[in-house]
Design brief:
It is a single chain. The protein is an alpha/beta fold. Helices cover 34% and strands 18% of the residues. The chain has 13 helices and 15 strands.
């Protein structure tokens, strides 16, 4: 039963206007939305804000409120605090041990592999892991750069494992793991996430350098022969679908879990590749549209860089997306959880567009790539604008 006297508008509720109609939805939950006459929405919001008692609400307004509550545009006041508390309970935490890497991959989003690098102090790493242990974090994922570039990597793993009972995982290129290291890894690590980005020597060497493919195949075979089975192998999608098909075939032969990642066009990746707009053009009906323009609003995953700065995910390392800092001495996170603003609301060309939330993607990092590059932005607009106007606004049904 909805308590109409206790409803407020979500900070993630957004509206679009076209002629005498209005679309309203929540851009951070699941992107569901409704289309109603503008006058009905204005009247309903006025009654929400200025009516003293729900007893005086008419049936039409109640139905509007019910629908807005269902799609998370309206939320209960007493649940706002609960939502904020849930923001601070991540299920997994990724820790950047170092920005040093022994490879110089063409698709690296943050240009790792150079001489200038940073490492997280081991006391900070252990402090973070202890916080995770004390707060029920299910997975700790160690990443870089390349974690095995650290000379104290085994000390770090042993230290975390001495008190942490959750899943301890490593994201690695695999080239620095020696056969003699495998018993230690089996003893302390639950899962290895190995990056490959190809399916044979030619395809892998074009991205990662020579002989990487051979090293990884040998590593996986050695892991399997020692009964270590929890391995994922990843490939970044650079637009070559034939490569992705062959990659899946390889993972099946190797009996490892395949992971295909979106290309994050930053750093070296932006120098060597071009963004493909095609994957989001396949819209054909109202059922294929939603307003979700922000991901990870619940922060179920956190990324902590070498400076102890906290971000919603590893693809968002720019300072404008910082959401907090890990304080080592106090052994706690200090969060700054302001509402995220979709980039499409900050760009003059897009800020008044009546389909902008349908055009953008849920991935904040991907939106940066698309909308901060005028060429990509205009190409996307040319392909999507008229189609979205027809699908969203010209449809005869008012939802």
């Amino acid at each position: 039963m909805i308590n109409y006297d206790n409803l407020v508008i979500s900070k993630y509720a957004k509206t679009l206007y076209w002629k005498n109609l209005c679309i309203i939805g929540n851009i951070a939950v699941d992107g569901r939305w409704i289309k109603i006459p503008k006058s009905v929405l204005i009247d309903s919001i006025n009654k929400l804000e200025f009516t003293d008692s729900s007893q005086s609400l008419d049936e039409v307004t109640r139905k509007v409120f019910d629908k807005l509550y269902e799609i998370h545009v309206l939320i209960e006041k007493n649940k706002i605090e609960d939502e904020e508390k849930n923001l601070l309970r991540p299920q997994n935490v990724t820790i950047e041990l170092t920005t040093l890497c022994n490879l110089k991959c063409k698709h690296c989003s943050y240009s790792f592999g150079g001489n200038n690098y940073k490492e997280m102090c081991i006391s900070t790493v252990i402090g973070l892991a202890k916080w995770c242990s004390e707060n029920g974090v299910q997975r700790i994922i160690l990443t870089g750069g390349e974690p095995f570039c650290r000379t104290d990597i085994f000390e770090i793993l042993e230290g975390i494992r001495s008190f942490y009972s959750g899943s301890l995982e490593i994201m690695t290129n695999g080239t620095l793991i020696d056969k003699s290291d495998i018993p230690f890894i089996i003893e302390n690590v639950n899962r290895l996430h190995i990056s490959l980005d190809g399916y044979d020597e030619v395809s892998v060497s074009s991205i990662r350098g020579q002989y990487v493919f051979e090293k990884i195949i040998t590593l996986i075979n050695n892991l399997h022969s020692n009964n270590f089975k929890d391995i994922s192998l990843s490939c970044v999608d650079t637009g070559d679908q034939e490569k992705i098909t062959h990659f899946y075939e390889l993972t099946k032969r190797l009996n490892v879990h395949p992971v295909v990642r979106k290309l994050n066009l930053k750093g070296k990746a932006n120098e060597n590749f071009k963004y493909k707009n095609a994957e989001s053009i396949e819209l054909s009906s109202l059922n294929g549209t939603n307003m979700k323009s922000i991901c990870h609003h619940s922060y179920s995953s956190l990324f902590v860089n070498t400076n102890g700065e906290v971000f919603p995910c590893a693809a968002l390392r720019e300072i404008e997306y910082i959401i907090g800092k890990f304080l080592v001495r106090e052994n706690k996170f200090e969060f700054m959880l302001d509402s995220l603003v979709p980039i499409i609301d900050t760009i003059e060309d897009c800020s008044s567009c009546p389909v902008r939330y349908f055009c953008s993607t849920p991935c904040i990092s991907q939106n940066d790539v698309i909308y901060l590059n005028k060429e990509y932005r205009m190409e996307r607009c040319k392909k999507l604008y008229e189609k979205l106007i027809t699908i969203v606004w010209d449809n005869v049904d008012v939802r």
